[in-house]
Specification:
Largest sheet of chain A: 6 strands, mixed
Helix content of chain B: under 10%
Order of helices and strands of chain A: EEEEEEEEEEEE
Structural class of chain A: mainly beta
Shape of chain A: globular
Radius of gyration of chain B: 14 Å
Distance between the termini of chain A: 41 Å
Shape of chain B: globular
Number of helices of chain B: 0
Structural class of chain B: mainly beta
Largest interface: A-B, 25 and 29 residues
Largest sheet of chain B: 7 strands, mixed
Radius of gyration of chain A: 14 Å
Oligomer: heterodimer
Chain lengths: ~120, ~120
């Protein structure tokens, strides 16, 4: 069965420093995609970054990068130069390509950025 | 481009009452999802529509939950009768992608927060 695991319920980081949020996944299907979403206190889910299972390079989007280690089945999110506005819940999610497009989410990590 | 619209944003009901949530996806998005997010947890898929057909409703508690997307555009999720454990945020999402290729990200609405007393 497909599963996403986020083992860090909460993380603290100092403003302007980098932080890594952990995500491991489990699937036996070779074709899948990995996503990170941000959920601020307002509740809306905001898409941050995507990595396909066949992508050779790690994805980057501005201050966000995804450290994709396929053999270890991990897809950690790295946020560089943290800002106060980065304080939010962060969810890792997986889509298995032969299962209709739905996303399976992890439990989330609450990130708090300290001034 | 307008995002995913949901209403109402907040609803408080007594247990055993009924409630309905409405969702209008992004124009042109054929796939629509309803997720349930209990406080402190990640979203859990309840039902997925492709146009007006159901793709996946394996985790929908069908004895009390129902959903429809009659014209392949907007959708309604109903709970009847509600239980205390139904207190959650109900998130609607839509996407363009239905097959392989492309990012296929889901675009989410702001959610409907339900409190069952």
């Amino acid at each position: 069965a497909q599963k996403i695991t986020q083992t860090q319920p909460g993380m603290f980081v100092q403003e302007k420093e980098a932080v890594t949020l952990d995500c491991t996944y489990d699937t036996s299907d070779p074709s899948y995609g990995l996503f990170w979403y941000k959920q601020p206190s307002s509740g809306e889910m905001i898409f941050l970054i995507y990595q396909g299972s066949y992508d050779q390079q790690n994805a980057t989007e501005g201050r966000y990068s995804l450290n994709f280690q396929k053999a270890r089945k991990s897809a950690n999110l790295v946020i560089s130069a943290s800002q106060l506005g980065d304080s939010a819940m962060y969810f890792c999610a997986m889509r298995v390509d032969n299962q209709g497009g739905k996303l399976i989410f992890g439990q989330g990590t609450e990130l708090s950025v300290k001034p | 481009e307008a995002g995913v619209a949901q209403s109402p944003r907040y609803k408080i009901i007594e247990k055993r009452q009924s409630v309905a949530f409405w969702c209008n996806p992004i124009s042109g998005h054929a796939t629509l999802y309803w997720y349930q997010q209990i406080l402190g947890q990640g979203p859990k898929l309840l039902i997925q529509f492709q146009n007006n057909g159901v793709v996946d409703d394996s985790q929908l508690p069908k004895d009390r939950f129902s959903a429809e997307r009659l014209k392949g555009v907007d959708s309604t999720l109903k709970i009847q009768p509600a239980k205390l454990e139904d207190s959650a945020v109900y998130l609607c999402a839509s996407s363009l992608r239905t097959g392989t290729g492309g990012t296929g990200e889901l675009f989410f609405g702001e959610g409907s927060r339900l409190t069952v007393l």
